[in-house]
Amino acid sequence: MTTSTVAASEGRRGSDYARLSRRVAEAGLFERRPGRYAVRIALTLGAFLAGWAVVAAVGDSWWQLPLAAVMAVATTQVAFLGHDAGHRQMFRRRGPSEVAGLVAGNLAVGLSYGWWVEKHNRHHANPNHADEDPDVGAGALVWTYEQAQATRGLSRWLARRQAWLFFPMLLLEGLALHVASIRALAGRQPDGRWRVPVRHRAVEATLLAAHTSGYVGLLLAVMSPGKALLFAAVHQGLWGLYMGCAFAPNHKGMPMPTADDDLDYLRKQVLTARNVRGGRFVDLALGGLNHQIEHHLFPNLPRANLRRARPLVRAYCAEQGIPYAEAGLVESYRQGLAHLHDVGRPLRAG
């Protein structure tokens, strides 16, 4: 997709989002779902802790490898709870939200909650903007022709083949998130200031240390070093793959606005996002992120209300003449991979 798609969408501005927000509010969808979240938290954390109990009980066995795959799923589901906490979908107040996020992120998953919230908020403010959205900045993957042309050496080799390497590279995403968390908490600028603003740096560092020592200690206590290493490789690799597969369908292959595009909030969020069709199982598997348009329009909307908001948002976009993108899960991956392949085309031609 090109930015011409973005520029072509014109219409009434200013109050469009306010009218949609009133419709969602009148439907009662901004109301918190404490009962639903209490059940979700209990089941998710219960399954997570039960999984580790089984790991401890199985001991030094090759059955630990399929258990590592199961724990990758459980870890991702806990990470989804951290995502909800970061958007204050569970609680209105910051304090309880941060406690939930720190427990889910730092202690259970080993991911800095404060770093992730700061990064994720920048993504929500300017989705798919190459200069403002950290999720589409140049890195292991490139998202624009300009980023591709700037690559050198190994990065250029990867950019030529990135569509084919996308899923294998996601196996390293878990490790990358752990490293980024540590760098965010410990990294300083040359003048001594912290590189990343984190509200509870000492608490986060303590919880990350507790996660790491508990994770490594448990594995080495119940299995041989070789099996422990293989368990960690499978667990962390599949966790990264699952996380990447949950977030990839949402924006990849959608329009990428630039500073020249004059978009209001409603159009900025809708035009850059894609919903994934599916039933309740897809909701569970993707942590509600399959309702990406609704989530971006109303980030603090409880996860259970996103499906109910979908027909309201879709109908309103039709009234305003705003394209509302939906695709099946496989098709959403195809579109994202097609974009990655197209970005690398000039390098292959050269």
Overview of the structural elements:
It is a single chain. With 350 residues, the protein is mainly alpha-helical. 66% of the residues lie in helices and 1% in strands. It contains 17 helices and 2 strands. It has helices at 3-7, 16-26, 34-58, 64-86, 94-109, 113-125, 145-149, 153-170, 173-186, 201-222, 225-247, 265-271, 280-285, 292-297, 303-320, 329-343, 345-349; strands at residues 275-276, 326-327. It has a two-stranded parallel ribbon with strand order 1-2. The radius of gyration is 21 Å and the shape is globular. The chain starts with a helix and ends with a helix. Mean pLDDT is 92; it is low at 1-12.
Overall strand count: 2
State the order of secondary-structure elements, H for helix, E for strand: HHHHHHHHHHHHEHHHEHH
In whole angstroms, the N-to-C terminal distance is 22 Å
Beta-strand content: under 5%
Radius of gyration: 21 Å
Mean pLDDT: 92
Sheet/helix structural class = mainly alpha
- The amount of helix comes to 55-70%
**Shape annotation:** globular
Count of DSSP helices? 17
| Major β-sheet annotation | 2 strands, parallel
- Pick out the low-confidence regions: 1-12
Order of strands in the sheet with most strands = 1-2
